[in-house]
Model the fold of this input.
Amino acid sequence: MIDALWGWPPPVLDPAGPYAAKVTTLAWSLFALGVIVTLVVIAALWAAIKGPPRVQAMLGGERAIWIGGVAFPGVVLTALLIWGLTLTATLTDPIEGDEMRIRVTGEMWWFRVQYLGDQGRVIMEDANEIHIPVGRPVVLELESADVIHSFWVPHLSGKKDMIPGRRTLLLVEADRPGEFGGVCAEYCGAQHALMGFVAVAHEPAAWNDWRDARLARIAAADGPRGTDLDMARTAAAGDAARGRNLFMDVGCAACHRVAGTDANGLAGPDLTHVGSRRTLGAGILPNHLGTMMGWIGDSQSIKPGNRMPSYDMLSAGELEAIALWLEQQK
Amino acid sequence: MDMGHIYRRAPLARAMALMACACLSACKDPVQTRREPAAETAARGLIAIRDAGCGSCHEIPGLDWPKGRLAPSLNGFDDVGLIAGQLPNRPEVLAAFIRNAPLVKPGSTMPPMPVTRQEARDIASYLYGIDHD
Done:
C-alpha cells in the first residue's frame, strides 16, 4: 500500500524533482519568515512590559505603529508576494522540446491514466499508476469525469484541481527513481479518502524497456480478437483459462477492457496490465491473488459505494480462477 | 451519559452494580490456554497484516480498515477448535497456513500470501493474542 501522506521524511518536505523542490523552498521560506516575525513580536512585547522606560515610550508612540504595524509588514508581505508568485509561475512554464504527455482523469474514486503519443493520440491505457522516466519533464493533462478532484503527488509537485469540462495542466519531473504515493486532494464523495495512486519513476533505459514491453503486448493483442496469444499464455494454467471465460461470462467485460480479448468496457479501469500494478482499488490494497479475490468478491466491504458491485454470487473457485487470470495480465 | 449521578442518588443501586460485577467475573475463569505473545511480535504481526491486505477478506480486531466479509472473521483464535475446520490449532500450523493455505489444506479457498516465514509467525502471534471476550 502506497501512502502519500505518512512516512519520514514527510513526503511534502522530501522533494524528488525540480518542481516539488521549488514548492518545498517556498514552504521553508514562509516557515522561517514566520519564526522571525514571531520572535520580533515576542521581543517587542517583552520590551514593552519589562523594558526601560525609554524603550517603552518608543514602542507606545504613534511612530512605532507606522513603522512596525504598517511599513514593515507592507514591505515584507509585498516582497513575499512578488517572490512567491514569480516562483510558482515558473511551475507552469511551457516545456521546450522533449516533453511527455499523460492524461489523467479523475473518476469517483480512481484515476484513469492515458499515455499520449504524437498528435495527442492515446497509445497506452492504465489506471491508478503513472510511470515516468527520471530527468524528463512530464505534462499531465488533468480532467474529471464527474466531480472536482485534485491531483497531488507530494514528492513531485503541488496540487492541481481536476475540473469537469476543463483541462488543467500540471508539470512534474522526478530526479531520482522510486515509487511516490499520490492522493486525491479535493473532497469528492464518500470514498475520497480511498482514492490514491502511485507515480513510479524509472531510470530512462528501464522506462524505455517498460514502454516497449507494454506496446508489444498491445500490438500483439491488436490482431483478431481472442487471439491464440492469450490462450497459449494461459494454457499452462487451466484455472486461468477458465477465469478468462468467466470474466467474459459473468459481466466483468461490460465495464472493463482487456486488450486482445472481447472485454471492451470503458466504464471501469482498463485491466490490460492489472497484474503488474502495485496496488488494487486505487492505491489502497497491495496487489496479489488474495486481495484480487477479496476485491472482486466483496469490493463493497472494502470501499463502500464504489461503482463496482460485489460479485458475491461467485463461488470461491470461480473467484480464484478470475483473479488468477487477471494477475497474469501484466 | 453520566452514570455517576445515578449512583450518588441511590446507594442501593451502587451496591447492586458491584454485586453484579462480582457475579459476572465469577462466571468464566480466565482462559489458561491463551498464549500471551510478546508485545513487539504482535505489533509486527499487525503491521504485516496491514501490509499484506488480509483485511480485504477478513475482519480482524485491531485493524480499522478494511473489514472484508468474504472470509471468516478472525476474532479469537485461541478459542477456535480447528484451523479452517480441520487443522490442529497451534501457532506453527497457523503460520504455515497463512503462508500457503492450499499446501497445508488442499482445496482451501484462501490463496498463498506474499509474506515471509517470520511475518507469518508474527501474524499468527497477533491473531492468538486477540481477546475474544
Observations:
- The mean pLDDT of chain B is 77.
